[in-house]
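anyone seen this seq b4? input:
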Amino acid sequence: MTSTSQRVIRVRHRVRIFLLYAIASVVIALALLKTSSVVEDQWGHDALFKWGSLTLFTLILFLFFIGASENYFGSRRFWVMTTILLIVHLTVFTLVLAHVDGWGVTWLIFFEYPIFVFLREALVTPR
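predicted toks r here
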């Protein structure tokens, strides 16, 4: 049996994690949507679909990765690595989308997740 104080601690922990997900989602979505509106002015209407897709897939990818990494939240190295992975992900796909007419490379994003997990396991120790 768990005591009331343990349940309260567990609920607070879940609320913090939910807020982390919500804040990360909003920040990433706003940044990428702002980028897409600027890009749409330069490259046309199809840019909104390309950049909107990138926004959606980036959110899905990083929310799954962060959600599966709860044991690593106390590690500063984990957050630095996740930030670097996000920067690399966005840089690579921004370069690809800027030079490709169609958005047919969405399947590449699904290969990133196992790489992220491998790097997390190899470089970060859980707390």
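The mean pLDDT is 81. Residues 4-123 form one domain. kinda curious what u guys think
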